[in-house]
Write a structure and sequence with these properties.
With about 240 residues, the protein is an alpha/beta fold. Helix 5 runs parallel beside helix 6. The radius of gyration is 18 Å and the shape is globular. About 35% of the residues are buried. The N terminus is likely disordered.
Length: about 240
């Protein structure tokens, strides 16, 4: 499969009716840029990511990466050149770490020297060497997050979606994983859309811009200085105030 032209912006309008709210969000992203989706639980942030990833189908709108149309019609999930990390790494417990990292890579590509070097680079950078031949069922939760990150990066996706992938991890590991993501985003040049309930995490991952959602609608968009300096609502102000 050939990836879309990476110089063309990603554009999406997601319209999706939920039980309590109607999500209606428009966004766009340039090559190598990042965007944070911020808001209270239930605001519709994860719905936006799920519709982009193909896990859910929008009721209306459009999703396009370069020349590749995700929706409409709905492009199958496995044909979307994205990386998607959630709270659950989704590893196959019966497979070894190395097999999980390379899962889904076509055999002809996996055998190429350049790809083998890339997998070795991921293995060393993410400190997976000691775990490489271990069954995924025997590694810790923090180690599983690293494996999930390596598996996502193995395909060198042009667009990465992060749906609170650091939930439940200690602060030190969160800092390390954020550093890894920032490093790889600069190395590979992928664009990134991230969701997290902690403003400081999003600010580090996506320093350029943020969209604030309330009840499925965008109530503010802009830089983090603007959000902190002039929050659009009392709810946003409360979310940005440290406990």
């Amino acid at each position: 499969m050939s990836w879309p032209n990476a110089d063309v912006m990603f554009k999406a309008q997601i319209i999706k009716k939920r039980r309590d709210i109607k999500v209606n969000v428009s966004l766009e992203l340039g090559k190598g840029s990042s965007l944070g989706l911020f808001g209270a639980s239930g605001a519709g942030k994860s719905t936006v990511l799920a519709c982009i990833a193909g896990i859910e189908e929008p009721d209306d709108g459009s999703v396009k990466l370069g020349d590749l149309q995700f929706f409409p019609p709905s492009l199958p999930l496995h044909k979307r050149p994205i990386g998607y990390l959630t709270q659950e790494p989704g590893l196959f417990p019966h497979l070894r770490v190395s097999e999980n990292v390379s899962f889904g890579i076509p055999k002809h590509l996996a055998a190429e020297k350049e790809h083998c070097h890339w997998i070795e680079t991921l293995r060393e950078r993410l400190q997976l060497g000691p775990l490489w031949h271990a069954p995924a069922s025997l590694i810790s939760g923090g180690q599983a997050r690293r494996v999930g990150l390596a598996r996502m990066l193995a395909r060198k996706p042009p667009l990465v979606l992060l749906d609170e992938p650091f939930a439940g991890l200690d602060r030190q590991l969160v800092r390390e994983l954020i550093d890894d993501l920032i490093f790889w985003s600069r190395t590979l040049g992928f664009s990134m859309i991230a969701v997290d309930h902690q403003a400081e995490v999003l600010k580090r991952l996506c320093p350029e811009q943020a969209l604030v959602l309330e009840n499925g609608q965008i109530v503010q968009r802009g830089g983090w200085d603007e959000l902190y300096g002039a929050p659009a609502s009392p709810l946003l102000q409360s979310l940005l105030t440290p406990l």
